[in-house]
Amino acid sequence: LFSRVGIPEEILTDQGTNFTSRLMKLLHRQLGITAIKTSPYHPQTDGLVERFNKTLKGMLRKFVSDTGRDWDKWLPFLLFAYREVPQASTGFSPFELLYGWQVQGPLDLLRRNWEDPCSGNKAEKGIVQYILEMRDRLENYRKLAAENLQKAQKYQKTWYDQQARKRELQPGQKVLLLLPTST
Predict the structure, then answer these.
(1) What is the mean pLDDT of residues 13-35?
(2) Would you call 19 helix, strand, or coil by DSSP?
(3) Which of 36, 60, 76, 117 has the greatest CB tally within 10 Å of its CB?
(4) How far apart are CA 92 and CA 141, in angstroms?
(5) Which residues of 146-155 are buried (b: 16+ CB within 10 A; e: fewer)?
């Protein structure tokens, strides 16, 4: 991952031992990464990853064989499909936000040829012009994604607030306290 997108400033993980080991602490220290841990027994903190895992599992269920042993063969194709679809929260696909342009997949080629079979190659642009346009496009994508994300967060907060209930505790009332099993 680091070889593709660089070393992050911070990483959010749950409190699994694979993320809290001495090796990971050493890696974080060596690379200057701030490790942020989710609250124990509170998966909502890591909601984006939990939602992605749910989506990916659903996609895998539709494609794997009855034995479920060939899931690894489908994974690259399903991840590509996920990354090319615009997300409701940002309005852009993960691929667009990372690279600044829409990915061209097999279905795009088929659709384009179906819609316009006579389309030829467009005139090539100069490299400087291309870079300037890419910079502007990425900046616009980031701004629009931030705006869309803010709208989605407002919507999610409104939805959560409607579902949440306020709990009133009285002095002396017994409560169940969950203590984390590891630090």
Answers:
(1) 91
(2) helix
(3) 60
(4) 8
(5) eebeeeeeee
